[in-house]
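Changelog-adjacent note: as of this version, every example in the card shows the full chain rather than a window. The one below runs 60 residues end to end.
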Amino acid sequence: MFAFLALAGDLGATVSPALVGSLAEMSGGNLKNGLLVAAVFPVVLVIGLILLGKNVKKKA
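Full-length structure tokens:
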């Protein structure tokens, strides 16, 4: 389990900066836009965890 978590962390740390840079470049070199999009991912993760928790409680 630890290996999968470490792999996910390494993958996120590798892909995220490249994604932010690409999005910033596509928006005309504005780094704030790239960082704004990167800040959306943790929010989506929290919403997904809340929805997953509700589904698990319904099944139990």
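Structural remarks: The mean pLDDT is 87.
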